[in-house]
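Chapter review: from sequence to fold.
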Amino acid sequence: MNFIKNKVFQITCLFFFVLELNAQIIETKLAPGVDETNTEFMEIFDLWKSYLKNSPDKIYDNPYWNLKEKESYKSYDLLNSHGFLSPSLYGLNVKNVVLYIQKEKNFHVIVSEYYWLNQEEMYPLAITKVIAKKMI
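The token string follows.
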């Protein structure tokens, strides 16, 4: 009986280890030409990097997303919506480069490109626009 319990424990540990290996970490960088001296843009860039490092491929109470949208929609991030793109863009083991950040009246637009890199060749997958707004 102990042998079976030990094997079940080992299989369970292996399962969680494999799940952890499959977690998506999206490498994010700035494109050449983005003004790195603009502190407001760099704050927005840091926010975007933090969001992408915090499992955007999982549906949970992500602290980097608007609370009202999280309450209104099951899958609030369209880039992670199954049916919009399947598998989700985040599940494709992609890299991300912020092409530019545009300031509007009361929000910023983050325009970024998701791509694969294969032997130093870039394969673009999508260019997206995401709204970043400071919540008061």
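Two observations follow directly from the output. The chain has a mean pLDDT of 76. The two ends are 58 Å apart (CA to CA).
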